[in-house]
Prior knowledge:
Layout: H1 13-30, H2 32-53, E1 57-62, E2 65-70, H3 71-101, H4 104-109, H5 115-145, H6 153-177, H7 184-201, H8 213-219, H9 223-235, H10 251-272
Antiparallel strand pairs: 1-2
Helix pairs in contact: 1-5, 2-3, 2-5, 3-5, 3-6, 3-7, 3-9, 6-9, 6-10, 9-10
Amino acid sequence: MTTVTAPARLPGVLPLAVVRAGVELRGFLRERDAVIFILAYPVVMFAIFASVFGGENQAGMTSTGEVSVDFARYFLPGMVATGLMLTSFQSLAISVALERDDGTLKRLRATPVPASAYVLGKVLQILAVSVVQVGALLALARFGFDVPLPATASAWATFAWVFLLATASGVVLGIAFSALPRSARSASAVVTSVVLVLQFISGVFFPFYGLPSWMQQVASLFPLKWTAQGMRSVFLPDEARYLEVAESWQHGLTAAILAAWLVVGLVVGVRTFRWRRRDDG
């Protein structure tokens, strides 16, 4: 009598995503150049700019008078925002394109692991790296440059939702954007160019209130500007809101725009994501 054994069932999506996250994290840590650029870049840039301009203030005339903020304190939110974009959007836009070109995605597609576990694994890996990156940046700001950190639960709650929305939108937009470069060789140049332009027009390296109005309007179409503004509402004193173009932190609009980009990234990503190279059928 022959006994038929039922095939073993795969674990659920979440356990598989956790396993994939471990694989993704180990792969990320092996790429030392990526670790240095993506993980350490905002920390190093903050240290350089805060050391050079640490004695200066960011000041502006508003309807309520002059508002002045120490440079290091003003610069920190922009570095947090750009760090999240590098870790999520730039990292995935390049790495997914590379995995598509070298056949990793094609081989993964042939396994029983669902696509949702692959994407969730990426999300968990990005979250882990982002937490470490932001933690290192805040520690340097606090203990190296005496930048005060938020002291209220509401400020940290704002930090949490801006962090999560910015990271989530960056992940899905990075995966969606990975389909745009024609090859992995061109992915780095294309993605890095986009990131650099957004950094310069979104109030990361320069005070947003000092940029030309047309540049402010262009930047307002993209998530980085709103992530930086949301982070400024966390780390700057409340009167600094008068330095913003609208003289308000615009939390509702920030959440709406980041959420809208999250939806756009999901829709575009689902429609354009490819497991194979263009020339591979």
